[in-house]
Amino acid sequence: MRFKSSVTRFATLSLGLLFAVNALAADEKQLIDSINVYRSQVQRCAGQVSQELPPLAADPRLALSATSIGNLQQAMATAGYPMKNVQAISLSGPRDAPSAMKAIQESFCQIVLDPQFVDVGVSHQDREWRIVLARPLLSARLGDWQAEGQKLLAELNAARTQPRQCGTQSFAATTPLTWNVTLATAAEEHSRSMANNNYFDHKDRDGRTPGDRAELAGYSGGQIGENITAGQDSVRKVVDGWVSSAGHCANLMNPQYRELGAAYAVDPKSDSGIYWTAMFGTP
Q1: In a 10 Å sphere around its CB, with 0-12 CB exposed, 13-18 middle and 19+ buried, how is residue 72 labelled?
Q2: Mean pLDDT throughout 65-79?
Q3: CB count, 10 Å around CB of 58?
Q4: Among 133, 130, 131, 124, CA closest to 87
Q5: What is the pLDDT of residue 2?
Q6: Per-residue pLDDT tens for 1-16?
Q7: pLDDT computed for residue 66 by the predictor
Q8: How would you class 221 by CB atoms within 10 Å of its CB: exposed for 0-12, middle for 13-18, buried for 19 or more?
Q9: Neighbouring C-beta atoms of residue 281, cutoff 10 Å
């Protein structure tokens, strides 16, 4: 009987510990979700207006101890994260994820709205929080921009075969997009412009909009849409990010769009390293 009682007490303790761990994980996930909602909307931060950004991917290697102090780059190496750039936010005092998000918006909006970052990790202990945002070294072996653009077309068409909820909008499965060389040329030029001039925006350095660029390239269609992202080194990561972002998702599921051109460009001297553009058109 004693043995049985002992096992029962151990099981109770284990369940209690499991509940605490799950609650901790839920807080961290809630904060990551809040950061991604914040990034998905246009924000005013430090006198600037942000672009709608794709979500950050949760990476457990970035969930560093909230109470540890030390060299951040060394911590990245120890965690096995091939870092290009990294930034850490330390908070002391927030009692929960909403309070932590409020502090981030008030004091660290420039960090979480930086388009170069693609991964995030969150950890906290009591009222000590650490949020780590990072961009990895480009590791994927990519084909030329036309080949990767065609892969992006295939992935987007696969996404369009399923009904999807994009934020508050519901979309039915829709018809596949077809490749358009003119839109692809415009997409490559914009990706190259962003990479070589180190910016991330739907407006180029001459103030031209996606519609302007499509018209200048010779596209005769009507409606134009554009998705951009930076820092992602594979088509799969690009599409996963867009599907998770309400505005990008709505563009790729829009049944009015029938044609696509897409491309990437790389510049090692730029903040994000690699930049992607997908241009949607209605013939």
Answers
A1: middle
A2: 78
A3: 16
A4: 133
A5: 37
A6: 333 333 333 343 344 4
A7: 67
A8: middle
A9: 27
d(CA 40, CA 266): 24
The amino acid at 8: T
pLDDT recorded at residue 24: 54
What span, in angstroms and rounded, lies between the C-alpha atoms of 215 and 7? Answer: 73
Of the pLDDT bands very low, low, confident and very high (cuts 50, 70, 90), residue 67 is low
Q: How far apart are CA 278 and CA 199, in angstroms?
A: 16
Start-end of H helices in the chain: 2-39, 72-79, 97-107, 109-112, 145-160, 181-197, 210-217, 235-243, 246-253
* CA angle in degrees (0–180, nearest 5) for 181-187-190: 145
Which H or E element spans position 174?
none
- Fill in the DSSP letter of residue 259: E
Residue position matching structure tokens 């990519």: 142
Query: From CA 90, how far away is CA 102, in angstroms rounded?
Result: 13
- Is the distance from CB of 252 to CB of 281 less than 8 angstroms? no
CA 128 to CA 65: how far, in whole Å? 9
- The residue among 64, 41, 60, 176 whose CA lies nearest residue 112 is 41
Cα distance from N-terminal residue to C-terminal residue, the chain: 79
How far is it between the farthest Cα atoms of the chain?
84
Query: Which residues face 40 on adjacent strands?
Result: none
184, 213 contact by CB (below 8 A): no
* Cα–Cα distance measured from residue 94 to residue 102, given in angstroms and rounded to the nearest whole number: 9
CB 156 within 8 A of CB 252: yes
Please calculate the CA angle 265-219-250 and round it to the nearest 5 degrees.
70
Q: Give the pLDDT mean for 146-167.
A: 97
